[in-house]
Amino acid sequence: MFAIAEDKNDKYTINNIMIEDFVNKKFCVFDLEGTGLDCERDSIIQFGAVIVEDKGMIHPERFDRLVKPSMPIPAKIENLTGITNEMVKDAGSFKDVFQEFQQFSQGCIMVAQCGYEYDFRILRSECQRRGLPIGDSVEMDTKILFKFLHPELLDTFSTDFLLNYYSIDASGLKRHTALDDSILVAHIMVHMLRELRDKRISDLIISTPVEIKKFIPRALS
Length: 221
Prior knowledge:
Number of strands: 10
Strand content: 25-35%
Mean pLDDT: 92
Low-confidence stretches: none
Radius of gyration: 17 Å
Largest sheet: 5 strands, mixed
Shape: globular
Helix content: 25-40%
């Protein structure tokens, strides 16, 4: 179990993480796109996910599904993601897509970038609204893992920051689409697993509070 405490609008703290043999687990690295950033109100419009296991290998199988939201997609989100209202009008319901996602991610630690700020929160909110059990999978945020590896750094660990830090080539992948973003985050995860092994760290233990800076998105026009 772990505890998350909100401090201010721009940061939060996390504590009490203990995952034995973390480096040898199976991970589902996923990303969600939604109608907006309000986790209590907005709807998920796309799931994307890949599997990382076998000591840091990214599996070729992909999960990529559109979801029919309970509200229209605003024009600014259409422009950002390329996902239009026309594209989702015949998409699967959240319940059906989420059940497929649960099957895809079965037995995995769930991993997301900025997950504690968005992905885990909106996913939990969607399930609560529909009375669906979210399950008991272990959750991990790549920002937390990077802070564990690099406590000396005080930056905001955005996706772009981590891609630049690890010199990951993002060409050919479209940002703000769930599958392509999950692929990029999977590459980030592979680098961090390699760092853990290089440091001979197997268990992930965070026993004192760690402060994480939130990512503050730019306003969309």
